[in-house]
Design a protein that fits this description.
By secondary structure, the chain is mostly helical. Among the domains are: 123 residues; 65 residues. The protein is built from 13 helices and no strands. Helix 4 crosses helix 5, helix 5 runs antiparallel to helix 10 and helix 8 runs antiparallel to helix 9.
Length: 297
Amino acid sequence: MSMIIFSFSMAAFFSIMAVYEIYFGIDVKKGTTEKTLRLLKGETQLRKLQKKKTSSKSKQTHLLNNPIVMLIVLSLVSFIMLKNIWLSLLVGILGYFYPKYVERERKQKRKHEMNIQFKDAMQSVSNSLKAGNSFQTSLERCLEDLKRIYRHQKNNALLEEWEKIVSDLQLGQPIDKVLNDFKNRVKLEDVDTFVNSAVIIHEKGGNMTEVLANVTEVIGDRIDVKRDIMTLTAGKRSEAKLLTFMPLILLGLLMLFSPKYLDPMYDKPLGKLLATLGVIMLIANFFIGKKIINIDI
C-alpha cells in the first residue's frame, strides 16, 4: 500500500514539475532573446565560435545536471534505504535543487583556479611593461605566456578569458571597455583591483609600470595566502565530506549484510523519528561544515 501511495505521489510531483518546466521555463525565451540581440549587434562569426566552444562542455553532463533526473534517482534510493515515503520525498526535493548547487560549486572552483592563474598573468604584464612595451602589447604577449603555462592543463579558465581579451583588442575595441567587460565577467576582487588601477592610469595618466608592479606584488601576496589556506584546509574539507556520507555507507552495508538489524528503525515510531532526525542532522552537517571551512580574505 505504501509503495502505491509513493508511486502516485511521485507521479503527481513529476507531472507538476514537468508542466512548470514547459510553461514557465526560460530556456527558449532566453535563447530567442540572446539570438535577437546578437543579430541586432551584428555579432561576428568569431564571437559565435568562441561562445559555442565555451558552451559545449556544459552539454556533456546535461543528464546529471537535470533536476528531474536527480529528483527521481535520490527519491528511489532514499526510499530503498529508509523505507519512508515522506523522507524519500524530502530527499528527492533536495535532489531537485542539487544540480543548481553543483553548478554554483563549479563556478566557485573555476573562480578559485582563475584567481591563482591571474597571478601569473599580472606578473607577465608587469614584466612586459618593464621591458618597454605598451600596455596593449603587454596584454597580447601575456596570452602567449599563459598558453605556454596552461595550454596542456585541464583547468585553463583564465586562458579562455585572456583569448577573448586579445580578440576584442584585435577587433578594435577600446582597451578600457575590454578590461571592464573582463572584470564584469569573472567578478573577482583581485581582478577588480588590477583592472581599476589600469583603467584609471590609462585614462588619467601616470607611471603605469611602477603602479602595476606594486599592485601585482600586493595582489600576488594575497593570492599566495589564499592558496596556503586552501592547502591547509584540504584535509578538513575531506573529513567533512567523509562525516556526511559515512552514515549512509554504513546504512547501505547493514542493509546488505544484516537487514533484520534495521527492522526497529522501519517498524517502530521511535526508529522512524530517529531516522528523520538523522537525515536532518546529515543535511545540517553538510552545510554547516562548508560554512565553517570557507574562509574569506
